[in-house]
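_Full entry_
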Amino acid sequence: MNTTISNNGLPGLAQATGSSKGSGNAATPAAPAGTGGPTAAADQLKLTDSARALQQATRADAGATVDTLKVERIRQSLADGSYQINAAKIADRMTAMDRQAGGTGKV
């Protein structure tokens, strides 16, 4: 496996290249940029599908829109003490989530 660390064209920094096979030397510096030495390779990054999904989920514009009226109604009902908790509905959803996590059923 080869590893290259690029200096991204910054003057005075050496480019290091290492290999997991060979002489046991983890990294050997190359000539600084602009001295006629090896050119810096372009950085590459490959994301897995899971990483792409996580990245997309963290973007502010990727999520569903927030129903501000519903949020305000809930906030007001919490403030005045009229918010009702439906324990049976919570229990049903928790049971369904447990079944789904265990692979024994669908939600």
User: Anything to note?
Assistant: Confidence is low (pLDDT under 50) at residues 22-28. The first helix runs from residue 49 to 58. Residues 49-102 form one domain. Strands lie at 2-5, 16-19, 28-29.
